[in-house]
Design a protein that fits this description.
MutS, DNA mismatch repair protein, domain I, Alpha-Beta Plaits
Length: 374
């Protein structure tokens, strides 16, 4: 059929595997401490301002999720065992997983300590299919590291990412090129990577509930509603993603944002900034380089975007320092107190080649940057 043929041609001939470790931090803790097995484990610093780094599947049954406030997780699951994160140990295990990947592919794009894309269009072990590569990788992780991983196999990164989540935990799902369109169209829009809860609500208000609804819209309409993201949605609804697997990709920024249900003044953003600062600090621990720049992002109710940043010769050495800097950047916002905001974000950028080990960094030679962008 012409439609199917055009879709297959657009998808291309790549063979992509997305591997995602199951509840990675929590699973490492349960593996290394037998007394934790079968119990609800939450990897987080316990405290009213902490966020969840990871939750075991036993904890997830109570509704505990990553990036959730730790106090909320404790309310949902009073029996949870809270374990402070040990990123040195997680990095060591991640390196062992990466060594397994390298047996099979040269094109490997890590997304974090616990997930990566592999381009196995040509694999190093001579296995006949990408599915066999994925099965072998999962078996080696289980046998050698006593951990489980889920994997998705597809003709591009977008589909492989969705596929890896389809049969979690400890699952494998394959999307063949000729199956992509039929698989995608019934999916709820929240399944599209990058469509968060706020965007999902906005789409639902427009009558867009499934990928098929996006597929039925004209590209001009999508662009008018969602800007450049609308063009991307048009492609994704057709299963099209030409982004290659990028080995040794340098991460330029780590950031997290909150879009508020109702617009709020800056004075009410402090709790959000504290939580976002901890979230990006936790994410930065997965990176081997220190970030010299802390960024505060705000979006007004009129959709004007403001950023304030602070750069130092020495990176922040703790979550408390990142939080303190982000809150101080609020003082650089010159808009009146009654101004309302719909979004706040905190980011880290300007990474070093290596993480610097310092006991008490002093923010010297500080450069302050302020930009207002419409």
């Amino acid at each position: 059929m012409p439609e199917n043929l055009s879709v297959i041609e657009a998808l291309g001939t790549r063979k992509i595997v997305h591997v995602d470790m199951d509840a990675f931090y929590a699973s490492v803790e349960q593996r290394d401490d037998p007394s934790l097995r079968g119990r609800p484990v939450v990897v987080a610093w316990k405290g009213k301002r902490s966020v969840v780094c990871a939750a075991s599947y036993e904890a997830r049954r109570f509704g505990v999720r990553s990036a959730m406030a730790a106090v909320h997780a404790e309310r949902l699951c009073p029996e949870a065992v809270f374990i402070p994160p040990d990123f040195t140990r997680y990095k060591a295990v991640s390196a062992a997983v990466r060594e397994i990947f390298q047996r099979h592919a040269d094109l490997i794009e890590p997304l974090s300590l616990d997930e990566a894309y592999l381009d196995v269009t040509v694999n190093k072990t001579g296995l006949p299919t990408a599915t066999q590569v994925a099965k072998t990788i999962r078996r080696q992780i289980r046998e050698e590291l006593n951990l489980t991983a889920s994997a998705g196999v597809a003709p591009n990164k977008f589909l492989a990412k969705i596929a890896s989540d389809w049969k979690k935990p400890d699952g494998l799902f394959v999307i063949q090129p000729h199956e992509a369109q039929a698989f995608l169209l019934p999916l709820p829009i929240g399944r599209i990577p990058g469509v968060g809860k706020v965007t999902e609500v906005r789409m639902t208000e427009l009558g867009v509930k499934t990928v098929g609804d996006i597929h039925a819209m004209e590209i001009a309409a999508l662009e008018s509603y969602f800007g450049r993201w609308g063009v991307r949605l048009h492609q994704l609804s057709r299963g099209i993603d030409h982004n290659p697997v990028m080995p040794n990709r340098v991460r330029k920024q780590i950031s997290a944002e909150d879009t508020f249900p109702d617009d709020v003044p800056l004075a009410e953003c402090e709790s959000h900034i504290r939580r976002l600062a901890e979230k990006v600090w936790v994410a930065s621990r997965e990176n081997v380089r220190g970030a010299k720049t802390v960024v505060l992002k705000l979006k007004t109710k009129e959709f004007n975007t403001l950023t304030r940043s602070l750069t130092s010769q020495i990176p922040p050495a703790s979550c408390e320092e990142v939080t303190s800097i982000a809150l101080r950047l609020c003082e650089r916002v010159a808009l009146p107190p009654q101004q309302l905001y719909r979004l706040v974000g905190v980011g880290l950028s300007n990474f070093q080649d290596e993480m610097m080990e310092v006991e008490s960094p002093l923010f010297s030679a500080i450069r302050e940057s302020e930009t207002d962008a419409l």
